[in-house]
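agent: user wants the structure for F-box domain-containing protein from Pisum sativum. delegating to structure tool.
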Amino acid sequence: MADSISFFASLPEDINFKIASLLQVRDLCALGCSSKFWKQVCFSDSIWHHLLTNRWPLFRSPLSPNLKTWRRLYFERHIDLGLRAGSVERFLKGCSRNESLEVDDYLQAVEIVNGARFGFEDIQRLLFKPEMNVLVNLVGVHYCITNLGIPGDNLVKVLRTCEISDRHVCVKWWKLGRWIHGYRGRDELLFRWISLENLATEEDETVLRVLRRGTVLEVLRVQISAVDHKSIPWSYQDNQ
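agent: tool returned. relaying tokens verbatim.
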């Protein structure tokens, strides 16, 4: 043990910084508790500032006057986002009726996530759990595409890893009837069954565009429902 510490102590400081910065947070903390040398490296502000800005690139917060360390800020933000994710889940549960959700409530949930500046890792850990309602998963997918700009292929890999890629939702939207010869026709109901994976890679973005815009212009209402994959007609699945 002493020989290994002597070896690393002889290395340039930036090399040890690079080694420590590649570790998972749990492993970094464990290494920092193994010796005085590694405690100095692993618990340094430079390491934790790197971890914080790498995990949350949209987060901008200087150290507060009460001398918080970057390590403390990291864990405070980690805990806070866990609480925010719980509030999103409770909000959607309170708004949904019979597993259906109106688009205004859905967009409000997306805005809660956006306001907290979730990172991609947070979405994976907190909103992509298979035991959650698929509507919560959907909010995470929407945020990743629209706000984080995650490429579809990368997002699909994560959805598959989290075992939620084949979960489905049904999006219905009612369009104002067209005016023909001075008369307005009947309002039109459109709908799509779509999996989270297909939403992430949808080329024409029809469903995502409806979810983004909500009830504007000719769209009177948008409703999102959780769907059991087994209940979708096979003929419809084959056309997806």
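agent: one observation worth passing along. The mean pLDDT is 83.
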